[in-house]
Amino acid sequence: MVLFGKLITELGIKTPADKFFKLFASELHEVQNLCEKVHHTKLHEGDEWHDTDTVKHWTYVIDGEVHTCHESIEEVDEQNKKMTFKLFGGDIDKHHKVFKLTLQVIDKANDGTDVAKWTVEYEKISEDIEPPNGWMDYLSKCTRDIDAHLSKARAI
């Protein structure tokens, strides 16, 4: 009976690590404009997008279905370019007691390819619930969309 799990993916990005991380750390509201699978997001509670006590409402598509949830920032580690987001409410609570996303952007200055590392940590409400594998496809697609936009903006 395994209720806890962790999924990890590492994706090479063309955008410099600092610029990619900055989008999440200080321009999170722009994600809805850059990712095909993010339909809408808005502030649900609070005044600032990047305060840890602010709650955002997200509408997004995973496995061809529209989902909603709330999100709050749990931790920001600027030095290590790492952020943890807590997801709850909406469709998340139907399947999970705990659901966290961690993004760490790793600077691989030696070869020019930086890495966006996503970790999904979860606790299912029952063993009958499948692992959230669709999230890995979703995060990969969003990462590619953001990277394409940021690297194109860099080339201009």
Topology:
Elements: E1 4-13, H1 17-26, H2 31-34, E2 38-45, E3 55-62, E4 65-77, E5 82-88, H3 92-95, E6 96-106, E7 114-124, H4 134-155
Let me know the CATH homologous superfamily: START domain
Q: How many beta-strand runs?
A: 7
In DSSP terms (H or I, runs of 4 or more residues), the helix count works out at 4
| Rounded average pLDDT | 92
How would you describe this protein?
- Belongs to the MLP family.
- Residues 2-153 form the Bet v I/Major latex protein domain.
- It comes from Pisum sativum (Garden pea).
- This protein has 156 residues and is α+β, with helices and mostly antiparallel strands.
- It has a single domain (4-155), classed as Alpha-D-Glucose-1,6-Bisphosphate, Chain A, domain 4.
- The chain is 26% helix and 44% strand.
- Strand 3 (55-62) and strand 4 (65-77) form a beta hairpin.
- The longest helix is centred in the C-terminal third of the chain and has 22 residues, at 134-155.
- The protein starts with a strand and ends with a helix.
- The relative contact order is 0.25.
Brief sketch in words of this structure:
The chain has 156 residues and is of the alpha+beta class. The protein contains four helices and seven strands; from the N terminus they run βααββββαββα. It has one domain: Alpha-D-Glucose-1,6-Bisphosphate, Chain A, domain 4, CATH 3.30.530.
